[in-house]
Design a protein that fits this description.
The protein has 187 residues and is α/β, with parallel strands linked by helices. It has one domain: Rossmann fold. The protein is 52% helix and 13% strand. The longest helix is centred in the last third of the chain and has 37 residues, at 147-183. Residues 1-28 are annotated as: Disordered. The active site is at residue 110.
Length: 187
């Protein structure tokens, strides 16, 4: 009888709201060499784009790259990101560069032209320097300065920050393995 009471108490504790289930913390592979990342952010629509940076920093740290290993740079707009990315890549100080910006209608350029130009230039930087460059430069079809749109894109940039951190960490792991295989003559 006493054992049945103890079992009932244990069962109650397990189902009690006072002992919430803790989420399983994912484990990520460790890097064999130190990583250093440059994060280049456009200041245009800063209140939206900074959500990407904040989410990126949280996720990249969860993946084994300390916040202190990420250098932050801010440029006026997305159009200025590629030149900064190129100069940063040429320093050989960074194992990756991440770009974040929001390109919207307005000004003398069409937003599709700016976004396309920025993405092509970032691809060119990574192919020329062999430093991976990741883009969270987004071009919404419709963006209005309304509170609803700003809030929607703030939330969207949080998602993009996590996604770009995942892509960055996965690519850096893949390149680390590949470069090790090349150095060992396996590939």
């Amino acid at each position: 009888m006493n054992q049945m009471l103890q079992e009932a108490e244990v069962s109650e504790l397990k189902n009690s709201p006072e002992t919430p289930d803790r989420p399983v913390v994912p484990t990520h592979p460790r890097f064999t060499k130190p990583q250093r990342i440059a994060f280049v952010q456009a200041s245009w629509h800063r209140e939206v784009v900074e959500e990407c940076r904040i989410a990126f920093l949280g996720e990249i740290e969860a993946r084994g790259i300390a916040r202190a290993q990420v250098d932050l740079f801010e440029v006026p707009g997305s159009f200025e990101i590629p030149l900064h990315a190129q100069l940063l890549a040429k320093t050989r100080r960074y194992t990756a560069i991440v770009a974040a910006g929001l390109v919207v209608d307005g000004g003398i350029y069409r937003h599709e032209f700016v976004a396309d130009t920025v993405i092509k230039a970032l691809m060119d930087v990574q192919l020329r320097t062999e430093v991976p460059v990741f883009s969270a430069v987004l071009t919404p079809q419709q963006f209005h300065e309304s509170a609803v749109h700003v809030e929607f894109f703030r939330k969207h940039f949080v998602i993009k920050g996590v996604e770009v951190a995942e892509a960055c960490a996965s690519t850096l792991h893949s390149l680390e393995r590949l470069r090790g295989q090349v150095a060992a003559g396996i590939v």
